[in-house]
Amino acid sequence: MRNVAKRIFAGNTTSLFLSFILLSFALFFIIGVYTVFVLISVQLVALIFSDKIVYRIGSVRPDAERPLVTIVSVRSNAETLRSISQHGKKILSQIREEIARSAMATYSASANEELKSTVIGSLLRHGIIASGKEITVKTRDVYRIVHEVSEKFGRQTPKITIANSIVSNASATGVSSSRSTVVITAGSLEELNDEELEAVIGHEMGHVAGHDPVILFAATSFEFLGRFYLWFPLLLYLGFFYFLLAFGGIYLLGKFLETRADTDSAVVFGNPEALASALTKIGFRQLFREKYNPGAKLFDWFQFDPHPPIYFRIARLSKYSGKQGHVRHTLLVSIRDIIVGFFSALFQV
To answer: Residue 11 has what pLDDT?
Structure first.
């Protein structure tokens, strides 16, 4: 259920809204015209309580009283993978529980070394051999970082939850800064340094400060109502292509908002290089594909993804070096950059 929640509620909730749009067709045959009002009402409730829903995604939730998060990672080899396959993946959750019970409440270099010994012992009890060289233990003051980022944005510190994923990423949702949640993956805490993590969280705070989930809710609700009450004949005429256009428009709006969040982070911190470095680590697979397949740079603009191509996001950040506090209309600037970036990719193919 947590994985389902991650898929639906993470990011700027575009997936959530589009899921409701697809669900509308099934309900339309059951309750008729009332489907529109029922689904919009459910969407609104989900939006209002999205911070609480997303907060439950992670089992680790740092706050002012317990600000630290320790990440333990074990690098696998052929032997460890063979042991796991023999015992079944359920032993991973058992190992995590054993380590959590043994972990100390306070952290230091010596405590982390003791924790590493605990991990080795727990693995051995399940038939998995690992040495200290294959285990890394890293403790991060997550609450302090998020709190300081929030202060720079002049916002209240959001709730924080840690998603147990090796992928480096973060997301945020909520209708306001007082009702918002930031999700940070374990991979981000392991791979990103403090400046990079601050920049990524700054991007997410840009979503919260800009009320992006509310904007997307308004956009999808307008499309939903219009589809049935304003331009229904157009839907009948275009058929499937209508949804390509409608979803494409929503995702285009998402690209504007994602680019604006990049700009806000770069301008508020005055360190766009940190965000560019973090994006390079987060999107290295896509960057590799784009480097050796030039056509992918144009194709990535047409994907049903609210994020612009990663190469574009990294390249444009260099323009905002030294412009801390000097960009007044970040949304308008971002829209301009999106248009220029798309046509540049189009004419380079």
So the answer is: 47
